[in-house]
Amino acid sequence: MTQDKEDDYSPIHLNAYMITRTHIYVKCPYCYTRYNKDGKPSKSSKNYFHIHGSGGDLSNRIETRGHDGSNEFYKQYNIRGEFYIHITDDTPRTNMNLTEYAKFIKSGKN
Ligand SMILES: [Zn+2]
């Protein structure tokens, strides 16, 4: 598999999906919601959201986080770099949780 690949320490830049008074939601391009027995993401799976604390700060900034290395699928990428989470003018500020926000987007009221 990927064991022969060198570790990659390049920084990973991601835009925050949304931010609340308590949490920052980040859609991870490397993690999925469901996996098959062979370890690959199942067809019906979606990209997984990682949730970090926002510390009540809704301002634009870049938050640096490491990725949880225990995810078996993520390990296949040999990514060792820090994740830079960008909170910009385009990042939705909301009081909703992820499920509520998904419903809101679907409703087209935004
Ligand atoms: Zn991830």
Structure, described:
With 110 residues, the protein is an alpha+beta fold. The protein has two helices and six strands, in the order βββββαβα. It has helices at 72-75, 98-107, and strands at 12-15, 18-19, 23-32, 47-53, 61-65, 83-87. The strands form two sheets. Strands 1-6-5 form a three-stranded mixed sheet, with no helix packed on it. The chain has a three-stranded antiparallel sheet with strand order 2-3-4, with no helix packed on it. The longest helix has 10 residues, at 98-107. The mean pLDDT is 91.
Largest sheet report: 3 strands, mixed
Can you tell me the residue ranges where pLDDT is under 50 for at least 5 consecutive residues? none
Structural class: alpha+beta
The number of helices is: 2
- Ligands in the structure? zinc ion
Shape: flat
Termini Cα gap: 43 Å
CA radius of gyration is 15 Å
Helix and strand sequence: EEEEEHEH
The overall average pLDDT, rounded, is 91
Brief overview:
This protein has helices at residues 72-75, 98-107; strands spanning 12-15, 18-19, 23-32, 47-53, 61-65, 83-87.
